[in-house]
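Issue 218. Parser rejects a valid record. Input:
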Amino acid sequence: MSEKDYGATLNLPKTSFQMRANLPNKEPKIIQKWQEDDIYAKGLNKGTKSFILHDGPPYANGNIHIGHALNKILKDIILKYKRLNGYNAPYVPGWDTHGLPIELKVTEKLGEKAKEMDALQIRKLCTEYALEWVQTQKEGFIRLGVLGDWNNPYLTLKPEYEAKQLEVFGELYENGYIFKGLKPIYWSPVTETALAEAEIEYKNVTSPSIYVKMKGNKDLMEKLGMNEEVWVVIWTTTPWTLPANVAISLNPNFEYGVYKTEKGNLILAKDLAEKAFVEIGITEYELVKEFIGSDLEKATYQHPFLDRTGMIILGTHVTADAGTGCVHTAPGHGQDDYVVGTRYGLPVISPINNKGVLTEDAGQFAGMFYLKANKAIVAHITETGHLLKLKEITHSYPHDWRSKTPVIFRATEQWFVKAEGSDLRERALKALDDVEFIPAWGRNRIGSMLETRPDWCISRQRVWGVPIPVFYNETTGKEIFNREILDRVIEFVKKEGSAAWLTHTPEELIGEELLVKYNLKGVPLRKETNIMDVWFDSGVSHRAVLETRGDLLHRPADLYLEGSDQHRGWFQTSLLTSIGSTHDAPFKKILTHGFVNDGEGKKMSKSVGNVVVPADVIKVYGADILRLWCASVDYRDDVKISDNILKQMAEAYRRVRNTARYILGNSNDFDPSVDKIAYKDLMEIDKWALNKLEILKRKVTENYNKYEFYNLFQDIHYFAGVDMSAFYLDIIKDRLYTEGTNSLARRSAQTVMTEILVTLTKMIAPILSFTAEEIWGTLPETLKDAESVLLTNWYENNDEYLNEEIDKKWLEIIKIRKEANKVLEKARAGENRIIGNSLDAKVFLHSTDANLEKFLKENKDRLELALIVSDLEIVDSHDDTYEKGEELPELYTKVAHAEGEKCERCWKYSTEIGKDSDHPTLCPRCASVLKNN
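Output the parser choked on:
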């Protein structure tokens, strides 16, 4: 053993970039630095092209959940990529801050005290509550590494937002899309307010399923040519709506029959009769008359318990799916009923109040809560003989998504955006033709919802929201609305917020000049007390945000990105308010993501205990691991997350981090301005690495442009883990450590490695923003073109690096290496092992295939390099000590211990150790390096 310390003569790696990420502790410091250095604003200033992603506002209530994290991180990835690519891509985050959930929380907290408070006091508390949650959620989003204008977000409660909302309402009104009408709408008896389509969710309930017979009048019997009593049979699961029954609908084209039974002569659709009789329990029946639905139009029948004559009407909404083909019709309690009833001029009766209690129009059932009335009505019609069958059934039923309680259909006077009977739906559908959808099926989904969309009920009977800006003549009840009056109200709102509607009298709001101009002087006036649906609030953000930030934003937005539930929510309300006011779509492209489920694909629920909270993930793994998860999942469908999945992410992250650390350590003495080697002078394996990098660059850019992050990270991960760590970086280690510090061989490897690292850091910056920033901070200044990785420019393609010939050659070498490595692995294993590591080995290769044999001989040096062995011999024959290849059966491999002695510096075996007397324990290469270094 030599006394010289040859270890000190090696070019060993040096870097401050730690192997252990320690993200939970490092990330907050990086955020602080981004804020201090104003990185977000600087990122906007460098852009020359514009890209507007408009943020859909989360509701300001509760901590951020994993769905929020997925949504915000996907947006952030896109915007960071766009900024690196030379776009001015601002991010103005927003919050939905009005509405029932906040008002309920505030009044719940107040308890009885709430009854003593006026609307202004409640609104003040709602404002405070909303702003507290905005602050909490904002901190959560910033911790995810999301860059944006956090000091100036848009809030739907801000006066400038509310003023723009009133302006849009005015445009819709003037364009004929706003009306007040008595219509059946979703109503929540618990929260005592109307609900929009987007506020409904479906759950199973158990309801009474009843078959009821209603007695035909003389005119009906005459139309059928019958002298005996005839009964029309209906089926319903809402007995409480029977007091509102004014008609029975038949399908004009269905064949119906009169069936003689023990319960009387019963009318049912022929296709449904058999099934219905089984349900009712009628075993003997005879078809005595046949007719089609249209034969009975406008015939009459007697209501089963009210002094009311009902009419037989026709409607194609009657289907043969279930029931009897004779549909109980109450225009005050159902959309189809209302539409068909309007056609026949039927009265809209809705004998139920705000609290779900039946009114006097319900006769003897007045004063009962509707669910109690169900039982009472069933008992009564059983007694009178009208009930044919009662049984309980479980079925899907609409619920209020906030109170989680069943809703009722109830006709009330409400304000609507006119979707039916106007060109709004048709225009909206046409506008979608010019919108790109990712995934593409989104177009059909929103389209089919729009095609059947009823009028949009936009009024709410609450206090926390933007008022509907309409006045009434107290004496006549006539609506007073015109643009000049609205403009004056808007000026008040700009200064004082929407509370101005409550603090000023109608006369103050309208003003002396307009009172005179519109002959309102001395007329008793009152203000509309309803507020607007929060979906109208958020639905006008394309105007209230995109039009109010000067040159920073513009409409239409380039991209809307939200969960797939927004096809029936924000995407639709934004489209309708945009078409109704400016006649165009507010977005060019819509991208949707699915919901987040647990690792088994089950819905998350507190009671099950499978909820994954972003803050908890960050405490253990750091935000970058959460960001990596977002980029790794195919978000177009529902996605899964669990601790096990996060551990896999952490492992993938580690590979990328280790690649970066290896390169940083081995390029610490590299100054590209002095040491960079021209492409033509690079070693072949280094050119191979650049070819791989160039292919990756193009794939990554393409996938960022297509928003397919799940593909691009797989490619990056494979490149870092397989092409680099497991192959290239492994092969060049000997060259980096042992060749002369300034040798062409070493500087060639460093030239390529640093280019790979700088490019890789830019590639991962939109996703692994914290880690990319940490790498950037460790890079030599000469390699950086900006103070932060988030301010650099995207890499440029370099056609010179593409080299198919080298790629093909090394692909073959890699196949041979794979076969040889299996034999080397066996030589390392077991009691009779031949070698400790690959440098102890000499490998013999032979091929029975002439072409492969030729390839082996031509590429002997490259193969020795790739195998990382001390010696390689290509032989002309093999015996049974050789192993046949698995994937290359024409290749035969044998491993023996290398001949000679081990070099003390490079650990390779050589038969020429000690040829240099100054270095008796070194191989000739190492001795030469030390002489010339």
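Fixed in the parser; the record now loads. The mean pLDDT is 91.
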